UniProtKB/TrEMBL annotation:
Belongs to the HupG/HyaE family. This is Hydrogenase expression/formation protein. Pfam families: HyaE. InterPro entries: NiFe-hyd_mat_HyaE, Thioredoxin-like_sf. The lineage of its organism: Bacteria, Pseudomonadati, Pseudomonadota, Gammaproteobacteria, Cellvibrionales.
Length: 139
């Protein structure tokens, strides 16, 4: 676990920050499937590992702000590793970094690569309503 955390620190300060403050949870492959089937809204962050370091950092910065806005309403999981073809296929990830938005056990949307802030904010608002306003979920 410590070795994995050290490799994450090399990837992105934003990822390390989210892991440290509890906004993002590092999950093993087995945990991801169990958690993704649980009730509630989740986001899986496929960072792409070291090969996608710069892009992953950009996505992580946006994700960190969104998770702060929706604190307590979203469970965020980091999918570690450079290449995880089985999980990528299962969650429809064709490019990294990607955010996979899930509700209960359904994939709502996959947001690939680096996007504008409005794309990320719009996706979360589409499914969760306005930031900070519990009970406004639309799906």
């Amino acid at each position: 676990m410590i070795e994995l955390e050290e490799s994450m620190a090399e990837e992105s300060v934003a990822i390390t920050d989210m892991l440290g403050c509890g906004l993002l949870q590092l999950a093993a492959d087995d945990d991801i499937d169990t958690i993704s089937r649980a009730e509630g809204f989740k986001v899986l962050f496929f960072s792409g590992g070291k090969s996608r370091r710069s892009d992953a950092h950009d996505v992580a910065v946006a994700l960190r702000e969104i998770l702060k806005d929706y604190r307590g309403r979203v469970r965020a999981l980091l999918v570690p590793g450079d290449d995880n073809p089985e999980l990528s296929a299962r969650y429809r990830v064709l490019a990294t970094p990607s955010l996979v938005l899930l509700k209960d056990d359904a994939i709502l949307e996959v947001i690939p690569r680096v996007r504008d802030w409005a794309d990320y904010a719009g996706a979360f608002q589409r499914y969760l309503g306005k930031p900070g306003v519990a009970g406004t979920e639309t799906n």
